[in-house]
Write a structure and sequence with these properties.
It catalyses: D-glyceraldehyde 3-phosphate + NADP(+) + H2O = (2R)-3-phosphoglycerate + NADPH + 2 H(+). The chain is α/β, with parallel strands linked by helices. It starts with a strand and ends with a strand. The relative contact order is 0.14.
């Protein structure tokens, strides 16, 4: 199919197109428009013109559109899920689950938007006469939100930007990932069918070389919400200038395993966290820091769990499927070869067929190996043996990233002490690293991002405070 962009309430083609192929087998799925800068300008102008009427609606009125979109999305879960599986090589069951979870996310965003209220502030006694002053503090939309989504969750991580922006009274320019753009446009169709007013939601697709920086620097954009790689995020930070941004970037999440941990549970959680969607998740466990005294047993347990994983076709619900493209596969293979050359012990089969990489667990990984520090975004898990809690914390914090970590121990006071020292946005105790629930704050520090997500926090981030002061 030839897919179109929604601009100012109309479906539009562009002179040029981009062909989308499935990473599973190279099958052509369809084409999307390669928009020009002039077409981007028109989308931006349309969004700006639609803003006054949209922000003038009550939160209840805006929520009605979101709830209708959620119902349509759930109705079409099989169709959208099937395309998602083809386009990003995600297991079909997980793909459909992503669509259903997204419908729930949109509904929750609609409800949360009703709870974002202002406040009335009485003056204090800081200076003479100030007690007569009162303030009405309200939240207003920031304006035009540019939402840029990643390939790994092209429906869910798109909606996690779009829904909070819309319920907050903003208008949206939505840039789906190139690989994942058809899934993004199917989500766009859902909002269009829900009756979203013209110009409130506009989609843009195109080549990064033509419109990438242009979108970021566009004078109509008031807020940039991006999920993707750390290098691109850093570039966006520079191009954005003084405009507010929200960045969800890379990670090198550590799973720290102490001597008293339930090793069977730790192994299951670590493998689930490391290899879900072939490890192509920012919150995947990407290294294990285990006390040397229990490392042999944990390594055996992890190996046994990994050997249960299936490898193959997403439509067979394989656990491990092809990674997104050849450059990604080449990068992962480079990390694997570096670890092998420097003496890491492979506990599982090292095998690659085109872009399909079998899950690899390395034991005896040392800090001079690339895999100890670099994010593979693929099915590779290094085990690093440590001799103390302090050593584990030191290695974990030495990373350029600061997204999440996990601590496995039965000693909760110690777990909280470790959590306080870890330089990350979230610490999970006795569980894998993960994004949800969506009601929780989600953030990264250092090279892992800027700003706080989670539906309540995203709405707050994409609205600004205005204070109106008067005397009584």
């Amino acid at each position: 199919m030839n897919y179109q962009n929604l601009v100012n309430g109309e479906w539009k083609d562009s002179e040029n197109t981009i062909t989308i192929y499935s990473p599973i087998n190279g099958e052509e799925i369809g084409t999307v428009p390669a928009m020009s800068r002039e077409e981007v300008d028109f989308a931006m102008e349309s969004a700006r013109k639609a803003l006054p009427a949209w922000r003038a609606l009550s939160a209840v009125e805006r929520a009605a559109y979101l709830n209708k979109a959620a119902d349509i999305l759930e109705r079409d879960k099989d169709k959208i899920g099937e395309n998602l599986a083809k386009e990003v090589a995600k297991g079909i069951k997980a793909a459909i689950s992503e669509v259903v979870r997204t419908a729930d996310l949109i509904r929750y965003a609609a409800e949360e938007g009703l709870r974002i209220t202002g406040e009335f502030v009485n003056g204090g006694g800081f200076e003479a006469g100030s007690k007569r002053k009162c303030g009405v503090v309200k939240r207003e939309p920031v304006g035009v939100v540019l939402a840029i989504a990643p390939f790994n969750y092209p429906v869910n991580l798109s909606a996690s930007k779009i829904a909070p922006a819309l319920i907050g009274g903003n208008v949206v320019i939505f840039k789906p990932p190139t690989q994942g753009s058809i899934s993004g446009l199917l989500l766009t169709q859902v909002f269009a069918e829900a009756g979203i007013p013209a110009g409130v939601f506009n989609s843009v697709t195109g080549k990064g070389s033509e419109i990438g920086d242009y979108l970021i620097e566009h004078e109509e954009v008031n807020f940039i919400n991006f999920t993707g790689s750390t290098p691109i995020g850093k570039k966006i930070g520079k191009l954005a200038g003084m405009r507010p941004i929200m960045l969800e970037l890379g990670g090198k999440d550590a799973g720290i395993v102490l001597e008293d941990a339930d090793l069977e549970k730790a192994a299951k959680d670590i493998v689930a966290g490391a290899f879900s969607y072939s490890g192509q998740r920012c919150t995947a466990i990407k290294r294990v820091l285990v006390m040397d005294s229990v490392a042999d047993k944990l390594a055996d347990l992890i190996k046994a769990q990994v050997e249960k994983l299936t490898v193959g076709d997403p439509f067979d619900n394989a656990d491990i499927t092809t990674v997104i493209d050849t450059p990604s596969a080449d990068f992962i293979e480079g990390l694997i070869k570096d670890a092998q050359e420097k003496g890491a012990k492979a506990l599982t089969t090292v095998k690659r067929e085109k872009n399909l990489i079998w899950p690899v667990v390395f034991d005896n990984v040392t800090t001079d190996m690339r895999i100890a520090w670099e994010e593979p975004f693929g099915p590779v898990l290094p085990i690093i043996r440590v001799n103390s809690v302090d050593e584990a914390i030191e290695i974990a914090n030495k990373s350029e990233y600061g997204l999440q970590s996990a601590v496995f121990t039965k000693n909760f006071p110690l777990a909280f002490e470790i959590a306080e020292k870890l330089e990350v946005g979230t610490v999970h105790i006795n569980n894998k690293t993960q994004r949800g629930p969506d009601s929780f704050p989600f953030l990264g520090i250092k090279g892992s991002g800027a700003g706080v997500q989670g539906l309540k926090y995203s709405i707050e981030s994409m609205t600004r405070v205005k204070s109106i002061v008067f005397d009584i």
